[in-house]
Amino acid sequence: MEKSSPNVSLRHLLSGQEALASDLVMRSYRAATTTDDSPEGVEEFTRYAAPASIRGRLSAGSIVMVAFLGASAAGVVEIRLPGHIGLLFISSDHQGRGIGRRLCEAAIEAFARRYTRPSKVTVKASPGSVAFYEKLGFVTAGGVTEFNGIRFVPMERELGV
Q1: Can you tell me the distance from the alpha carbon of 80 to that of 62, in angstroms, rounded to the nearest whole number?
Q2: 79-94 average pLDDT score
Q3: In this structure, how many other beta carbons lie within 10 angstroms of the beta carbon of residue 60?
Q4: Which of 4-13, 31-40, 67-76 is the least confident region?
Q5: Is 44 within the bounds of a domain?
Q6: Which of 4, 55, 88, 136 is deepest in the core (most CB within 10 A)?
Q7: What predicted TM-score, i.e. pTM, was given to this entire model?
Q8: Percent residues over pLDDT 90 in the chain
Q9: Under DSSP, is residue 76 helix (H, G, I), strand (E, B) or coil?
């Protein structure tokens, strides 16, 4: 059963907060018992989630949102052109409270306000997160794939326009 977290505030990541997002992502990634990336994949993901990489994607138009419980960051989502979720991580002590769902929906809506609403949103889901994305209406769009040592399942969710 999912416990609700009504006191969660969702905010756009501001310039200069990239380390906050990166830290939460990396702590969550390391804590995931479902992570079975190769050493090359861990290195690739670490580069992708680094503050400088997040800063670069923000400059290129990505939308990054953070869920806060009080002053503590509880989750991060990034959606980039053309409608791809590049990051969605919830700290392990705040999972199962609806924060991931709220972040995902808020990011899609913020993306649609800034750009044309995409007809679908895609994600390269870690194998352990497939069930979560299915609950959000995503369907698999291929089998388990590995790229640069990172294992994922391509998924998509039709939005309509």
Answers
A1: 4
A2: 93
A3: 9
A4: 31-40
A5: yes
A6: 88
A7: 0.89
A8: 75
A9: strand
The answer to whether 113 and 90 are in contact (CB under 8 A) is no
Burial (CB count <10 Å: 0-12, 13-18, 19+), residue 143: exposed
Confidence band of 2 (pLDDT split at 50, 70, 90): very low
Tell me whether residue 153 is in a domain. no
Report the alpha-carbon distance of residue 15 to residue 70 in Å, rounded.
Answer: 20
CATH number at residue 90: 3.40.630.30
Q: Which residue has the tokens 């953070």?
A: 66
Beta bridge partners of 24: none
Collapse the DSSP code of 36 into the 3-class scheme (helix H, G, I; strand E, B; otherwise coil) and give the result. Answer: coil
Count of structural domains within the chain:
1
| Domain hosting residue 95, numbered range | 8-117
Which H or E run contains 64? strand 63-69
Q: CA 76, CA 103: separation in Å to the nearest integer? A: 7
Which tokens in the block code for residue 139? Answer: 């369907």
Alpha carbon distance 154, 127 (integer Å): 10
Residue 85 domain-assigned?
Answer: yes
In a domain, 140, yes or no: no
